[in-house]
Design brief:
The complex is a heterodimer of chains A (about 120) and B (about 900). Chain A is built from four helices and five strands; from the N terminus they run βαβαβαββα. Chain A has about 120 residues and is α+β, with helices and mostly antiparallel strands. In chain A, a hairpin with a 5-residue loop joins strand 4 and strand 5. Chain B has a six-stranded mixed β-barrel with strand order 3-4-9-6-8-7. Chain B starts with a helix and ends with a helix.
Chain lengths: ~120, ~900
Amino acid sequence: MARILKPDGDMLQGTLDMLVLQTLVLGPAHGHFIAHAIERRSDDILQVEHGSLYPALYRLEDRGWIASSWGASENNRKARYYRLTPAGRKRLAVETTRWERLVSGIGRILRPATE
Amino acid sequence: MSWLRFFRREERDAESVRDLQFYLDTETEDNIARGMSPEEARASAWRKLGNTSAIREEIYLMSTFAFVETIWKDLLYALRTMRKNPAFAATAILTLALGIGGNTVLFTVIRAVLLKPLEYGDPDRLVYLTLDNPKLNLKGKSFSLLRLDETRATVQSFSGVGAFLKNPESVTISGGGDPESLQQARVSANFLEVLGVQPLRGRGFLAEEDTPGGAPAAMISADFWRRRFGGDPQVVGTPVTLDSTPHTVIGVLPSGFAFPFAGVDVWVTKPSHWSGLPARFWSGSTPLNLYARLKPHVSLEQARAEMDVLQRQYARAHPERVDSKPGVSVLVTWLKEQVVANVGPMLWMLFGAVGFVLLIACANVASLLLARGSSRSREFALRSALGAARGRLIGQLLAESLALAAAGGILGVLLASWSLRAIPHIDALHLPRSGEIHLDLVVLGFTVALSIATGVLFGLFPSLQVSRPDLVDVLRESGTGAGRESSGRRGRLGFSLRSLLVVGQVALSLVLLIGAGLLMKSFVRLNSVDPGFHPTNVLTMKIALSPSRYDTDRKKAAFFGELARRAEAVPGVRSATIALSLPTTTSLNTNVGVEGQPPVEPVDQPIAQLQSITPGYFRTLGISLLRGREFHEADNSPGAPPVMIVNESFARRFWPNFPDGRNPVGQHVGEGLDKLKSAEIVGIVADVREAGLASAAGLEFYVPCVLHAPQVAYLAIRSEGDPLRFAGAIRSQVLAIDRDQSVADIKSMQDVLETTVGQRRLTMLLLAAFAGVAVLLALIGIYSVIAYQVAQRTHEVGIRRALGAESGDILRLVLGQGLMLALIGVAVGVLGAFALGRLVEGLLFQVKASDPGTFGVIAVLFLAVALLASLIPAQRAARIDPMSALRQ
């Protein structure tokens, strides 16, 4: 079931932030790469509207979780590269834990019989 | 969010454009590589990216202030919510506006009247002196001229003692324009010095102007100066005529100066010239009110102790004086307390009442928000699960309540500024310092703080509760789809919190209602008091004869006798009279003794009010004659044997068995004031409440005008129909006798009486209005809680019906719940009213603050309407069709 998540208010924000931070764990990347990486790595279940990624990137940068600089891309254009900061790494750990706890909680509720 | 980013937001916008451009270029290239045509590739890239201007805008907005943006969003959301439910929003805003507006008004008034220091030099050193005697009927508790002189000569505690005549006088001014009626105060020459006030123009009174024969000088108010003299800087030295006596304007007082009375436009000195009395009575009368300035380092207690000593010395030196009797003492209080003594309790009581109204309004809005909050709990649970911070949710809910409170506050300030403009013009309030009442920044600050506090108060409880959803509960509910049932713990909590709010509302409104009930009962009692005369269709006016042209008793008596005769001859006038005083105006008191009764020292003789009248007095005012006869014209002619008529209290005082026993008619009475030969009692009349409805009648005796010709007297006529229609005709009769004679204070007797009950009436009406609003809010509270509960329990009611409950059982079940809330609230309210009773005690008349009748009737009435309020939802519950309820 593919569903397009729109960055509507707070609903996606926490989740999308987490996905972006996770993508950057592997190393610096530009917006185009991050968008495609999230889509690909979720086996196309999460189809992020790519534009929605950009406000998230700027917001994460404002919070000091990622940093950016302009560099040359693989196709020889000027691209804005984002990388994870130490604060961002910590944040990712917190978000991941919280998410896992929530998922397991919901899982227990939705499938009480299997436990 | 840093300032730096705020100023760099344009640069950042350009960066985001390049960033997005890179995406489009790269995606297009990739698409071409996948085999799309260039056009197709670009279009597909655009589709994938989405609305770039929206993205740019979102990034741009991040660089504006984040919290502003958040609040803005929350506010917009709140406004959308309000628009979706305009009835709720309107009710809430209007309720809050009334509460906040009322509090703003009362705060402004209390601050200006009660809290701010008096606008005099070093006002905290000013004291007020009164004579106190619980046993004697010393009206006005004022001082004699002798006392002023002796106090000034001996007192050590004060650096200055000022005096003023206890009642303002109404005078007619002529010269420099049309004749005009004004309020005049008589003050001692040093009155400004003691207060520490400088005149705006000219000078204050000189000591020699305060002596018999001193040049007649007048000071005028700044308001009057502008109104009549156009603010002429040369006004000092202008001659004016006050009640036929020429005066010179010597100074202008500062704007807003209202001492010793509000609304005074002209001040003259020589307070000894109490214009109602011939010089030979000055020593015996007590027309002066005194105030003084404490010397530095002298405490109020020291001043009190000194005045006690001086009182004892005075009593020893002048045992014949009415103010020398045992039990008389001099009270020293702060001047400010005296200035506001009449309105302090009323204002605080009303402030308390509007405070209650606001609390009730908060409870109501909180209750409504709670009800709405429960239905939004799933929305909040979901948002919280997806990462919304709890603070953010609380913030949003608070923004909604603050938006309501702010709207209420703005409307409240508008209401307040409108009513504050009106308040100084409501004469019935008798509000001192009313010129100092205005909306200023302090008041606006108060209102802003109050609105915020209000918003937080009614918004925080619901938002804390709603934003702490039990995730498991809420999600389980959504899993089973049973959203309508109350959801476990939280649902019960929600209900009990709302019930608590309703109980609080009921209790508060009951307190207000009982307060209003007590005042209302007092008012009814007061109005059912027989004043001793019939005030309808009576016209009164004041006539002050010029002391220079009417310098003998004979001239005065002749003028007044002629005027009474002419007035009586005017068509439509049934009778007319001249009197030294009328009920609620000034009074002249003296000691009296009956000949043939065991003699007592003058100091132990009872005090009685002296009235000097022309023969038509009792007929004109409608005072019943109990025994004997009224005065004849013959009694009022020069040289006639002295006669007097006494009131019933007088008769009972000297002949305790009256109306049985020895007949007072035919007895002779001596009066101390005049040391006049004895006068024979020829009649006995009913008591008149001279000092207003709330004060009991004292001893009183009447003598014919000729025996005691007044300088200033009142004309009263009893007319057919509206008495004010005769004002012109009577005035022309006055002018026909003496074309230079002015009249003042033209009023119907009912208006004269109204001034004595107006403040009570207004206080009662205001409190009743507050109580009415409060009760309405409380009933809405009960109704909505019960209705909500019925809606929540539709399923349960269905089951009960299916199991055999009759609709009557359901009705009783729901009604019982409404009644229970009301009962608890009423019980708490009765206790509260009992505890707060002393706040209204001083405002009551012949009613106790714990009047069981009022408490009982109001409690029962309240329960009855509360029952009615829950009847509507109860009937709805009783009509629930079990089959459809269960199918839901």
